[in-house]
C-alpha cells in the first residue's frame, strides 16, 4: 500500500492496484479527472469554458486564510489596468471566467470586443 499526503497533511491509503488508475497522468503530467486540458492555442480555440462559475476560494477557509493580504495591500498602492481582447464567441465561455478570477484583482478591467452592447447574463460591458 502507498500512503499519500493531501494538502491538509492527512494520510490517505491507496491500494497498489488503484494507484495507476486513479492517479494516472498524461504526457504533460496532468490528471484527467477534471476533463479536457488543452496545451496549445489551436486546442483551446474552440474549447468550452468551465460549466460552473469559477471564483476564488473563501478567505474563511483555513487553507486560504490570509493569502489575499498582500494582494489587498498592493491593490491600494499600485493601480492595475487590465485590458482583455475578446470576441462574441468567447463572452460566455471565457470572458466571464476571466472577470470572476484574475480580473477581480484589477483596479480597472476593460473588455474589448468586435461586438458592441451589453451582455446582461455575464455583466460584462463591451
From TrEMBL:
It is found in: Membrane. One of its GO terms (molecular function) is glycoprotein-N-acetylgalactosamine 3-beta-galactosyltransferase activity. The keyword Transmembrane helix applies. GO terms for cellular component: membrane. Keywords: Membrane, Signal-anchor, Transmembrane, Transmembrane helix. Its main location: membrane. It is a single-pass type II membrane protein. Belongs to the glycosyltransferase 31 family. Beta3-Gal-T subfamily. The lineage of its organism: Eukaryota, Metazoa, Ecdysozoa, Arthropoda, Hexapoda. PANTHER family: BETA1,3-GALACTOSYLTRANSFERASE, GLYCOPROTEIN-N-ACETYLGALACTOSAMINE 3-BETA-GALACTOSYLTRANSFERASE 1-RELATED. The keyword Transmembrane applies. It comes from Allacma fusca. Residues 26-44 have a biased composition (Basic and acidic residues). Residues 23-44 are annotated as: Disordered. This is Uncharacterized protein.
Amino acid at each position: 500500500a502507498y500512503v499519500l499526503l493531501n494538502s491538509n497533511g492527512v494520510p490517505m491509503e491507496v491500494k497498489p492496484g488503484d494507484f495507476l488508475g486513479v492517479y494516472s497522468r498524461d504526457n504533460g503530467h496532468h490528471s484527467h479527472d477534471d476533463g479536457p486540458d488543452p496545451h496549445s492555442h489551436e486546442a483551446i480555440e474552440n474549447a468550452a469554458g468551465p460549466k460552473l462559475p469559477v471564483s476564488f476560494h473563501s478567505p474563511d477557509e483555513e487553507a486560504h486564510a490570509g493569502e489575499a493580504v498582500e494582494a489587498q495591500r498592493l491593490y491600494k498602492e499600485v493601480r492595475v489596468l487590465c485590458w482583455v481582447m475578446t470576441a462574441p464567441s468567447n463572452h460566455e465561455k471565457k470572458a466571464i471566467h476571466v472577470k470572476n478570477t484574475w480580473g477581480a484583482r484589477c483596479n480597472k478591467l476593460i473588455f474589448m470586443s468586435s461586438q458592441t452592447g451589453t451582455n446582461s447574463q455575464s455583466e460584462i460591458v463591451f
